[in-house]
What we know:
64% of the residues lie in helices and 0% in strands. The mean pLDDT is 92. It is globular, with a radius of gyration of 18 Å. The protein has one domain. By secondary structure, it is mainly α. The structure holds fe (ii) ion (2 copies). One fe (ii) ion (FE2) binds next to helix 3 and helix 4.
Amino acid sequence: MASRQKKMDAIALLKADHRKVEDLFAQFEKARDRDRKEKLVKQICMELSIHTMIEEEIFYPTCAGQVKDDDLLEEAYVEHDGAKVLVAELMNSGPDNEFFDAKVHVLSEMIKHHVKEEEKRSEGLFAEAKDAGLDMDGLGERLMQRKQELMEEFAEGDNLPAPQTRSFTGHELQQGKPIGAGQAAD
Ligand SMILES: [Fe+2]
Ligand SMILES: [Fe+2]
């Protein structure tokens, strides 16, 4: 469903994505029905995948060297990668799996923090990008074009690839059993 969206500058577009995902998380917190939860999480994973991709492919590289504080950008990549781990977890599980709701909740907290860093007045990444005089209209068009391409490619989340990290470089984690939950320690 590649609906034509109205033209927005880069910051308006990215902020609109933030509001959309916040709304999806809020809907999830209220949802009780398992199918509804599953559908919402699929949508959350798709929205976050597209949003992180357009920021990483277009917005962040344009900010690099232009904003006052490149540390903000580096932290943004790391925060994205942290969120991708949970997105990947959620893509491979469902509402019947243990920790599913907790993973969604923790992901929402991580995103809330990240969005705050991007939108913070005067010293946030978006504010710095604005101060740097980047062409926000041109950037907005490029972001929208890429977003529409990805929405078609990912087919409402039915065709969503595993997230690709940029700052995490291939550590393999060991899996352990959950502790507690009524099991006696031996
Ligand atoms: Fe963002
Ligand atoms: Fe971001």
